[in-house]
Design a protein that fits this description.
The longest helix has 27 residues. About 50% of the residues lie in helices and about 15% in strands. It has two domains: about 60 residues, Ribosomal Protein L15, Chain: K, domain 2, CATH 3.100.10.20; about 230 residues, CRISPR-associated endonuclease Cas1, C-terminal domain (Four Helix Bundle (Hemerythrin (Met), subunit A), Up-down Bundle), CATH 1.20.120. It is an alpha/beta fold. It contains ten helices and ten strands. The radius of gyration is 20 Å and the shape is globular. A hairpin with a 4-residue loop joins strand 3 and strand 4.
Length: about 325
Amino acid sequence: MDALYLAGDTQLRRHENTLQVINREGRTLRLPVQSLKHLIATHDVRLNGALLNLFKQHDVRITVLDYYGHVACTIEPAGLPTSGAVHLKQAEAILNPDRRLFYGRKIAVATLKLLEGNLRYHAYRGKTALKNAIEDIAAFRQRMEQAESVETLMGYEGQARQSYYLAWEHISPNLMLRKRSRRPPADRINCILSFLNGLVYALCLNEIRKSQLDATLSFMHSPQQARYSLSLDLAELFKPVLADRILFSLFNKSILQDSHFDEQPGICLLSEQGRRRVIEAFTEKVDKPVLEDSRSYRQRILEEVFAIQSSLLGLSEYKPFFIKV
């Protein structure tokens, strides 16, 4: 059990050397801490110093998401893996415009290939109206190859995503997304997408923390833009295959019902039941061996982290993640 997700109002206690989870109704669950590495709370959670000390002993990280699915805070165990050599090489790459652009382009181009792949999957199954969006994204990907700055890369990536989101309604009328809204999300699609993106970000940060990379030094996103901006870089690469595909499945299979949302004019949030459903779908997708060689997406993210670290040290060439439709 690498990760534990808490979707409801929960109290956490230390019981000897185990974790005691108490839900709103008073039901209690005891779990071993030895195999736990990441706790993600998507609602109110209460804990004390005794439990934090136990988490420190076992290197357990805590991530708290807000109502919109964004990371509100993280609690890191002391003594994370560090390496002066890796830190220096990573900083050198960030400070060198050509090196930063090299890694940023690799990630951005691979991300757009995955966006294309998602649309092509449905185009192959008769959704011919997706052709224009696929061509638009391919054109932006070609422009990325000629981009001379990270800022230009990010601009192309944003325009490509706009074409990508507008194309969703050609996959299904239930997937209409004319405009992204985040704080707060305005409708059900934005609500689910923001929540899933937050889960992907938290997952990427957790895997980065297993390496010696500095999560604050990034290639695409500005290192000053967010505290853990390298997690944003990795999340861009994995959101198409995790967040987007899970969202497609949830709506196409009608898994979510009215009771799974709390809606007001201009605001849509997940109910506690809704968060549970989405988290169930996410954990199944992340940990299930589904890739060609039976690796899970969690394992593949960790491999991506070490691929970047190895490349920075000059030990191997960086080839970003890609999966065929």
